[in-house]
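WARN no homologs supplied; continuing
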Amino acid sequence: MNLALHDIRRHLGRFTATSVVIGLLFTVVLAMAGIYQGLVDDGTVLLQRMQADLWVVQRGTRGPFADPSRLAPSLEARVAAVPGVTSARAFTSQILQREHRGRSLRFALVGLAYPDDRGEGLGVRQGRALAQDHGELVVDASLGLAIGEVIRLGRDDYTVVGITAQLLGSGGDAVMVATVSDTQRIVNDDSSDALVAERDRRLARLKETDLGRTQPALEDLVVDPRWSIPVLPLPPIHAVLVRVTPARLDEVRATLSRWSDVSVFSQAEEEQLVLQGMVQKARMQLGLFAVILTITSSLLLAAVLYNLTLEKAATSPSSGSSARVRRGSSAWCCSRPGRWRSSVTGSLSRSATPRSRTFRGASCSPRPASSAWGCCCSR
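OK structure emitted
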């Protein structure tokens, strides 16, 4: 221990530099591991807060996050009627980017089935959950919006009523929560020119039919913005979130799996699909960087220890006496209890009352409180 402390004091600069470099390398390794784990957590935090036992999505797709899924809104009622299902909630999710007060906001717009799902389980830190079907938003704090702030999305104004913390989508985007009807209104909003052009195309198609030629009054309905064609389907939803009685989970899943138009995934399976799909490449890259840094740090530490070992071996004589070779000089110093023989021919004997002696041009004197002689000799 004393020898190690002596060596550190002797090579303090080298020891400090080596420790700093090794510490920085291991800090980078730990940082990469933390970023890797954070990416995994951010990709699954929204799924975990939705608190669903089963995810029902379009047949042949992998869910609303890893793959586009389009379902009829009536599926929510169909699932709710299955024995063992305690609740079935419609769910939508879209990535949008909008301008607000001179800055760009990129977010995942999530739609909840109000009033069955108001967003209480999302971890609202400030404000409250949704309390009405239209005009309210719950947003993540990373968007920088305040309680009561109004943001225009599409043709309507929406008020921020709640703020969450660390509520992110599978791609790492901040989440903005609204009702399903609001999200469909925002996503399907078209410009005025697009709406006018569509009405003109409908009117032209109507005039080409016998019904349009025989009943001109239908033209007024086609151009009326409050009227929609009854045969057109309602805007689709992306998934149905199902809560099940724990004792009947397998039974409910087997029943839903027999339906020809849907696929069913458990919570764990949906999380795995998200990790394998959207964040898999980023996970592989971060994992590769962490492995490379770990190997590099280990090799560097091994090289430092190996060089220190070689230096100790080079500066320690094999005869058992302690010696130190002065670099750039032909002088060397050594000591040994009792009789001592150097590489110079001759010997030096102990004395009962040693003082100082000269041997072959070397000045030798006893060390304090020791029976060893310290001599500086020339080769």
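The chain has four domains: 2-42+284-315, 52-188+235-264, 196-230, 322-378.
OK
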